[in-house]
């Protein structure tokens, strides 16, 4: 396996399909990770938002987002930068169960992660 993401997917075969935001300009990146059979296009999506704090380092945020989301180091730096400078960063959209699982993984480092429904009127 070449990277952390491939290793994570191999260890977690039921990982969700997520839509991941990277860079300060919110360029969407789609990561396909073996969708669950129960998911349908009509299921409500939730956003996963990382909240800034005074104790996690850029490296910690970068490492956990590379593991949880499968983003590159450059993309993970963009997420960490946005969390630090703007106070938070929406890192992914996923169905509720998958969003909660991604949030659980990111929370391992002790950082606050919010999971909120996406208002369909805004998209």
TrEMBL record:
SUPFAM superfamilies tied to this protein: ClpS-like (SSF54736)
Upper classification of the organism: Bacteria, Pseudomonadati, Thermodesulfobacteriota, Desulfomonilia, Desulfomonilales
Name recorded for this polypeptide: ATP-dependent Clp protease adaptor protein ClpS
Superkingdom of origin: Bacteria
Entry-linked Pfam families: ClpS (PF02617)
InterPro entries linked to this entry: ClpS_core, Ribosomal_bL12_C/ClpS-like
Keywords on record: Hydrolase, Protease
Domain Adaptor protein ClpS core: 43-107
GO aspect biological process, one term: proteolysis
GO MF entries: peptidase activity
Organism expressing this protein natively: Desulfomonile tiedjei (strain ATCC 49306 / DSM 6799 / DCB-1)
């Amino acid at each position: 396996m070449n990277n952390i993401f491939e290793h994570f997917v191999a260890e977690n075969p039921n990982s969700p399909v997520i839509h991941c935001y990277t860079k300060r300009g919110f360029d969407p990146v789609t990561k396909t990770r073996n969708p669950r059979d129960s998911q349908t296009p009509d299921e409500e999506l939730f956003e996963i938002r990382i909240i800034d704090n005074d104790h996690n380092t850029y490296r910690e945020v970068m490492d956990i987002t590379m593991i949880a989301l499968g983003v590159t180091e450059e993309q993970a730096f963009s997420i960490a930068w946005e969390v630090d400078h703007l106070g938070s960063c929406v890192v992914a959209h996923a169905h509720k169960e998958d969003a909660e699982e991604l949030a659980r993984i990111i929370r391992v480092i002790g950082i606050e992660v919010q999971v909120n429904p996406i208002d369909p009127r805004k998209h």
